[in-house]
Every structure is written in structure tokens, then in C-alpha cells.
Amino acid sequence: MTAISMSSPRAIAWPAILKEAAMTAFVALLLTIPLVGLRTVDRPTGLGLETRWNEVAAAVGLVFLGRLGLCLIREGHAVTVLVLAAAATAAGFFIAMPTEALRVILIGGGAVIAIRAILAIRTGRSKLSQAERDKRMDHIAAQVQHASRWLGPIAVVVALAFPFTPLADRQLLDIGILLLTYIMLGWGLNIVVGLAGLLDLGYVAFYAVGAYSYALLAHYFGFSFWVCLPLAGFLAAMSGVLLGFPVLRLRGDYFAIVTLGFGEIIRIILINWYQFTGGPNGISGIPRPSFFGIADFTRTPAEGTAAFHEMFGLEFSPLHRIIFLYYLILVLALVVNLFTMRVRKLPLGRAWEALREDDIACASLGINRTNMKLAAFAIAAMFGGFAGSFFATRQGFISPESFTFIESAIILAIVVLGGMGSQIGVVVATLLVIGLPEAFRELADYRMLTFGMGMVLIMLWRPRGLLAHRDPTILLHGRSKGGSGGPAAGTAAAGGQGIAGGSAK
Amino acid sequence: MLKVSGVHTFYGAIEALKGVDIEIGAGEIVSLIGANGAGKSTLLMTICGSPRARMGRITFEGQDITQMPTYELVRLGIAQSPEGRRIFPRMSVLENLQMGSITAKPGSFANELERVLTLFPRLKERISQRAGTMSGGEQQMLAIGRALMSQPRLLLLDEPSLGLAPLVVKQIFQAVKDINREQKMTVFMVEQNAFHALKLAHRGYVMVNGKVTMSGTGAELLANEEVRSAYLEGGH
User: Fold this and answer.
1) Cβ–Cβ of B86/A474 closer than 8 Å?
2) Which of A45, A282, A381, A451 ranks highest by number of CB atoms within 10 Å?
């Protein structure tokens, strides 16, 4: 842990280094035997075990070499290690490996060690201290937050233009829709968790209410998507208020547990109210959205409705609907974002943030806590409802399976990893949490493993979330433009002084 | 202005206030002193409505506020700087002050801000700093400043000197004196620092075990033999 000066390479203490590397390799062995070495497979006779000792051996060997490299950097042989690590990375890139996983470990591990070596060469130290690293990371986070002022609009333009680029095939558009759905949910939950500071573990309940509202209204009354969208939002908001009334007198952990329960209650009602909701079979044949009720996206629409492609004189393509859905969720997500950005500058949003900071002080300042929390809950629920009915119309089929606790957990993970209250953080975290597993689909079994590793790394490096940096929403009048950089610089500096700043919540 | 009569407050089965009577007139600074656990803070919190008084009455300018929700009090003109300061740590100083004016008349913000910043020039220096990164004394100033932003007529202070260096305590008490003199603000203060609190106050009360045992002008109490031996031991 200590930073050791390495001006002069010392004689290498091989036994100590080998011992350290062996210890690490041993830990890796213990971890990889159950995680990688054993695999259950379906056999005609039942569940069977398959072993993969080769992978285990490869992983342990690589960990051993990696630790050795780190030790050598510490001992002052950064250049040698850099060359070797770069070679390993290159080998991962160019030489065919027996398994995909091995390749990823080789590239990833090699790159990490190479970066470490470069750092060591540049700074003359093997490792940055924790406080120093935090400070740098905070600085980067602050910069990203600042950059989001122009980065945000650019991202929106890119997202808008994306369907017209040659890249946009069916699969990528679907991933785009998936990402945007989670971004919207993340932004919605961010209102409750990030702004108002209420740990909601059952957000998926409102998502489910929205989805089932649309599905059932369409199923029983034949309402169209455009009628149902506001209704679904309204019903979800109502369920938020309904839950909020009894629950909001609770605080902290107790609050979280009850919201968790609520999420499960909704799901179990959906399963058991067989006659009405279709139970575990779900509801299928949910109508697809039309082009604002004017035109349909089918090749040959029913009597009396126009076809989208004919209306615009286009060749029929099933992609049209997908692109429309993509834009729909993009707009919905942006609405949530604009709402949050705006509300932070209004008394309502301020009061939410104050509640997150200290809710007893809020009462003494004349803020009606119950109403504020209810408002946060209802509004977030409404956005969840919108997302839910979008989900229903996109899938065409919903069942309680889609609304399990893990969904709540993923959305919450997005908000927390992004840095609570950070809008751009939610986007980055969604790209990591949802995007990475999609990108690593070819890794098959190791997908979730990489996902877990990513989580652990974030916990180690950015325990308060990737972009946990908050800019004040007002500045003193009469300050020059140059002065407006002050607050961020001020916080960064304060964080660096290592007072409460760096880690105080 | 504020009248507390026969108030009993319970924490579960434990009786924390055993029939307290206190009166605070307009324009006064009144200090309540007492040992740890005497019920000083409980009285202040009971005035604010949490916990509620189980018996007795609390009136503010003739209006019964015994059962009034905490957040309504600010609108009547009672501001509170709670125990432990309770500033919003991740918000900037300016945002904290702005939260204080959330119930104030629209348009009053700039004026009140000016007044608070004149009272505590230190806050002006720190205006865009995150409140949680300030020193304890600065945080206390912020807590008082935030309470003042709502343009109250009665200011309740809970242990403003807690955990602060003597020099800072002096500054804070001086500020309280200034507010009282210049803005005719009525102040009710709960303090362990009996010497400073009584020196500052027009009148004082002494609380022992949930009961008010003594009252008088600040000077009288300071001179009182019992008070001296119980609270001023060691001399300041």
C-alpha cells in the first residue's frame, strides 16, 4: 500500500515476490474452481457436472503472472514489465486462443498491468495513494459533469441521428431501445433515490403497473396506446401515492424493506389474479403502437387506417416500427431528464435535495416532508408507468416474469453506480450495466462474471458512484463568468484537503 | 410572545418534562440553562412539535400551537436552529441559505441574504463552498443564518456553542446580540454554556430534571450562589 520510491532498482527479493504471487494465485484458485471450473449441464439423465480444469489453470497462471508483474513494478522494473504486459495484450489480440474468456483476461489483465507500469514510469511511484486517487477521480468526475453541458446535447443529436446511419440494423436498434428504457427508468428512480434520498427497492412495481395498465386496458376495452400512455402514468402515480401514504412515515432501512415488499406484492397479485391478469401466462397480443393514431406500421393495415409506408411514400420495411419505437423511448427518456434538470432549480427539487441531506432540518425550515416525499414518489412512479406501457407495447407480451426483484435491483444499481443524483451518471452506468453484458454476449457463460467483476471494480475505485459530483444549482449574482468555475474547483480543492470533503455524503 | 404552560412531555414511559412554565416576551433574549439530560432540548423540541406535549399548552402570540405540525411553525414566524446544526452538507452555503427562505415572501431573498451575510461575513467568503466542508463554527453560523432567512419573529437556538472554540462562541453570541438589538428579534436559547448564555440574556431559566427551578434576569442568575456552584464551577 505504501508508495515506494523507485529511483534505483534494487536487487529483487525473489522468494518474497514468488510467495506473494503464489498466495494471490491460491486465492484465485479458490475462487475459480467453483466459478469457472465447475459447470452444470443438462443431461438426458438429469443435471450433470462438467469440469473445465484447463480454464482454471489458465486463469490461475495468468493471475500468478499478473501479480508477479505488479511486484516487479513495485521493485523498480517497470519498463521490463511494460514490455511483457504489452506483449501479452498483443498476444491476446492477434493469436487465436482456445477460449474467448482467456483472450479477454489476457487483453484486460495485460492492459491493466501495462497502465500500472506506465504510471510507475511517469510518476516514479508504483501506486497512487487512496486519497490521491480519489482526488483525481473526483476531478475527472467534475470535469465530466461540466462537459455534460455540451456533451449532453451532442449525445442527444447522436442518438437522434443513429437510426439513419448505416450502422443501424435491427439488432443495434433493439439494444438502443433496451438501453434507453433503462436510462429512462434510471432517471425516473433517480428522482426518488438520487434527489429525495429515499431508498426505493420496489421501483419495478410501478413499471409493472404501467405495463399491465396498458395491456389490460387494451385487452378489455381496446384502448389504443396513445390513450393508455397517460392513463398508465396516472395509474402508476396513484399506486405510488397509495404506497407512499403508509410507507413514508418510515425511514432508512425500514422504508427500503417495505418498498421491497410492495414490489413483490404487485408481482404476486399479477400471478395469482388469474382471471383478470392471465396469471403466470401473462398477456399476449398487446397491440403495437400506431403512428400517433394516424397510420399503422403493418404492410396491409386494417380497413380505415392508413399504412405508414404508403403515407410517406416509402418502401415497406419492418424496421420502420422499430425506429419509431426507438424515437418514442428516446423522447420519453428526454422528458424525464428535462423534468429533473428543471425541477432541481425549483423549490420542489430543492426541497427534495434538502430532504436527502437532512430531513429533520427540513421540517424546521417549514418543508412539509410528507407531501414532498409523496410528490417525489408519485412523479417517479408516473415515469415508471410510462416506461412500463412502452415496454408492453414493444414486447407485445408481458408476464409477471418481467417484473421480478432483479429488475428493481438493476435499476437501483444503475442509479447508485452512476452516482446518486447524477443524470449523466445514469447514462454511463446504463451503458456499463446493460450495455456491457450485451456487448459481451459472445462470452456466454462469463458474461455475468465480467459483470460482477465490473461491479467489484467500481466499488473499489468509486464507492460513491462513478460521477458522484454535485454542482450547486444557484450561484451568487454579480459573479463573473470566470468565477462560475469556482464552486467546482472549490469542492475539488476541499476534497483534496482531506477534510470531510472527499468522502462526506 | 411565546407562552409554555404546564407542559409534560414523555419519551415512552419516561417523563422528560414535568410541568414546565416559561414565558418569553417580545424583543427579549431568554436563555434556558441546565445540566445534561435536564430536558432543555426536549423543551425546545416540544415547542416545535416533536415530540408532542402530552399535557399543557403552548401558545405563540395567543395562538395555540401545541398540536401544530412542525413545518407550519415557520409560517407563523418561529425559526429554529436545531441541535447539531443540521445544515445540508452537500449543498453550497448559498443553497443552504436559500432553503431557509423557502417559506419566506417571494422577493425577500436578496434582502435577507444581504443581512445574513453582513451579520456573518465569514459566510460570504464561503458562499459557494459545500457546507459540509466548513468548520464547526462556520456551520453554526450557517445554521443560524439559514434560520434567519425565513424572516422570523422568534428565533429558537439549540446549543449554539456546542463543540466550538471559545473565540467562535464569543462571535456567535455577539451575532445573537446584534440580531436582537438591530432587528428586535426575540431569541430563546438553550445552552449548557451558562456563563455566556446568562451574560447575554435579558432573562434566564434554570432547568433541573424536567422542571424549571429558578428564574430571573440574566444578571441575577449569574450572581446567584446556587447557580454559580452548580453551573459556573471552575469559572470562565
Assistant:
1) no
2) A381
The Cα of B29 is separated from the nearest Cα of chain A by a number of Å equal to 20
Q: What share of chain A is helix, strand, coil (3-state, %, to 5)?
A: 70, 5, 25
Q: Whose CA is closest to A92, among A111, A77, A67?
A: A111
At A132, which amino acid appears?
A: E
The pLDDT value given to residue A140: 78
Taking the alpha carbons at both ends of chain B, their separation in whole angstroms is: 32
Q: Distance between CA atoms of A212 and A282, rounded to whole angstroms? A: 9
Q: Which among A486, A200, A184, A224 has a CA at the least distance from the CA of A338?
A: A184
A357 contacts on B by Cβ (under 8 Å): 88-91
> For chain A, which domains are there?
14-130 (no CATH), 147-461 (1.10.3470)
Contacts of B136 (CB under 8 A, 6+ apart): B85, B163, B164, B168
pLDDT band at B119 (very low <50, low <70, confident <90, very high): very high
- Count the residues in chain A: 505
- DSSP letters of B160-171? TTTT--HHHHHH
A253-279 as b/e, with b when 16 or more CB fall inside 10 Å? Answer: eebbebbbebbbebbeebbeeeeebbe
- H or E stretch at B158: strand B154-158
The H or E element that residue B56 is part of is strand B55-60
Taking alpha carbons only, the member of A390, A490, A482, A419 closest to residue A139 is: A490
pLDDT, tens digit (0-9, with 9 covering 90-100), for A68-107: 888 888 777 777 888 888 888 887 777 776 666 677 777 7
Each residue's pLDDT tens digit, A245-254: 888 888 888 9
pTM value is 0.81
Percent share of chain A, pLDDT over 70: 87
Given a contact cutoff of 8 angstroms between Cβ atoms, the answer to whether A350 and A377 are in contact is no
CA distances in angstroms from A375 to A238, A304, A380, A382, listed in the order given = 11, 42, 8, 10
CA angle A56, A57, A63 (to 5 degrees): 90
| Cβ <8 Å between A357 and B94 | no
How many whole angstroms separate alpha carbon A195 and alpha carbon A470? 11
Query: Is the Cβ of A489 closer than 8 Å to some Cβ of chain B?
Result: no
Q: What is the pLDDT of residues A159-186, one digit of tens each?
A: 888 888 887 788 889 999 999 999 999 9
Determine the 3-state secondary structure of B3 from DSSP. Answer: strand
Which of A266, A289, A290, A122 minimizes the C-alpha distance to A205?
A266
Separation of alpha carbons A116 and A87, rounded Å: 15
Give the residue from A352, A365, A475, A484 with the most B CB atoms within 10 Å of its CB, the best one to mutate.
A365
| DSSP 8-state assignment for residue A128 | -
With CB atoms and an 8 Å threshold, state whether A357 touches B102.
no
Closest residue, chain A, to B133 (C-alpha):
A501
**What value of ipTM does the predicted structure carry?**
0.87
* Span A342-369, average pLDDT: 89
Contact predicate B102/A365, CB 8 Å = yes
End-to-end CA distance of chain A, in Å? 25
* Single-letter amino acid code for the residue at B41: S
- State how far residue A226 is from chain B, nearest Cα, in angstroms: 38
Cα(B233)–Cα(A111) distance, rounded to whole angstroms? 68
Distance of alpha carbon B75 from alpha carbon B103, whole angstroms: 7
B188: three-class secondary structure by DSSP:
strand
Cβ contact B133–A500 (<8 Å)? yes
Predicted confidence band of residue A9 (pLDDT cuts 50, 70, 90): low
Strands (E), A201-337: 283-284, 295-296, 306-307
Domains of chain B are 1-77+152-236 (3.40.50.300), 86-151 (no CATH)
